[in-house]
């Protein structure tokens, strides 16, 4: 049986899925047609129902609970891993402006349905002047003055200072201080139209793939490097260390609590619609 599978070319996802798609583990009769896209492109493909299994931002997933169920394996949650607001000018001045006159600040975001944009809405509800950009283009847009503030994700949190850019706020840190929970960034979801035994098998296989990668972290090195946009090996593994952890093996009680809190907060603030289905694969 062949299933469509979408994930990002970022090191955390290629690390997680290497063993699965290259049959380093027994895939129990499943094969995969893989699509590599940035998270907002994956969000849009999921909205169109194009993928059987995909990485999704948790913000986008809130709109697709009827179509997809969240797997226990493969998620990106953690502490100190959140999106960051950066600028070229005075960070204190811009932080104040975001609070008092948010609509006057032009912000580059990596996608409307990213969890990063959701957190931005929580921290600065008045900051509504947003421009959607591919995440890898945001730093340059700040440098050239195309935008006043950039909302960065992924490996850009390791590189922005090298370009002379400054941090306004770490939105992951903001969430952690507000809630005491890990920040849920992205999860792996499976189409509810698939037979339940296949959905459960997919969850089991992704867990095995993560466990394989943890047992032999360099096993997928060439594959990870081939998608890492000229990133150094050191930055690649820093990225993996931040975004792949115990929650990627199994959400567990803590992970599920953090996700439920994220959704409950968003529903209360009317950022996402009400949800009637069980979000987790049971």
TrEMBL record:
Keyword set for this entry?
A: Lyase, Menaquinone biosynthesis
UniProt binding sites for substrate = 55-57, 115-116
* Active-site residues, record numbering mapped to chain: 154
Q: In which pathway does it act?
A: Quinol/quinone metabolism; menaquinone biosynthesis
Instruction: Give the reactions, separated by semicolons, that this protein catalyses.
Output: cyclic dehypoxanthinylfutalosinate = 1,4-dihydroxy-6-naphthoate + dihydroxyacetone
What Gene3D superfamilies does this protein's entry cite?
Answer: Periplasmic binding protein-like II
Name one matching Pfam family.
VitK2_biosynth
| Superkingdom of source | Bacteria
Enzyme class comes to lyase
Q: What is its EC number?
A: 4.1.99.29
- Kindly indicate whether the keyword DNA-binding belongs to this entry: no
Q: Protease: is it a keyword of this entry?
A: no
**Which InterPro entries does the record match to this protein?**
Menaquinone_biosynth, MqnD
What is the role of the protein in this entry?
Answer: Catalyzes the conversion of cyclic dehypoxanthine futalosine (cyclic DHFL) into 1,4-dihydroxy-6-naphthoate, a step in the biosynthesis of menaquinone (MK, vitamin K2).
- State the family it belongs to: Belongs to the MqnA/MqnD family. MqnD subfamily.
Provide the protein name: 1,4-dihydroxy-6-naphtoate synthase
- Species for this entry: Mucilaginibacter jinjuensis
Q: What is the lineage of its organism?
A: Bacteria, Pseudomonadati, Bacteroidota, Sphingobacteriia, Sphingobacteriales
């Amino acid at each position: 049986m062949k299933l469509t599978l979408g994930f990002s070319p970022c090191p955390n996802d290629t690390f997680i899925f290497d063993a699965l798609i290259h049959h380093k583990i027994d895939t129990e009769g499943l094969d995969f047609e893989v699509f590599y896209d940035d998270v907002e492109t994956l969000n849009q493909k999921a909205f169109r129902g194009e993928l059987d299994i995909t990485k999704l931002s948790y913000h986008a997933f809130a709109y697709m609970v009827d179509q997809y169920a969240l797997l226990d394996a493969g998620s990106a949650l953690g502490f100190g891993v959140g999106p960051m607001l950066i600028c070229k000018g005075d960070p204190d001045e811009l932080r104040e402006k975001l609070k008092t006159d948010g609509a006057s600040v032009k912000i580059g975001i990596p996608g409307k349905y990213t969890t990063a944009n959701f957190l931005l809405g929580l921290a600065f509800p008045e900051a509504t002047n947003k421009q959607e950009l591919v995440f890898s283009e945001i730093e340059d847009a700040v440098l050239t003055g195309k935008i006043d503030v950039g909302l960065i994700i992924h490996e850009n949190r390791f590189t922005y200072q090298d370009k002379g850019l400054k941090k306004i706020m770490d939105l992951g840190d903001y969430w952690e201080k507000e809630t005491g929970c890990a920040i849920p960034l992205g999860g792996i979801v499976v189409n509810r139209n698939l037979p339940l035994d296949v959905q459960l098998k997919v969850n089991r296989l992704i867990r095995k793939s993560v466990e394989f990668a943890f047992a032999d972290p360099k096993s997928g090195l060439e594959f990870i490097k081939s998608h890492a946009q000229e990133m150094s090996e050191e930055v690649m593994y820093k990225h993996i260390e931040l975004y792949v952890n115990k929650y990627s093996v199994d959400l567990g009680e803590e992970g599920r609590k953090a996700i439920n809190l994220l959704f409950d907060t968003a529903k209360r603030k009317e950022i996402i619609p009400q949800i009637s289905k069980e979000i987790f694969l049971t």
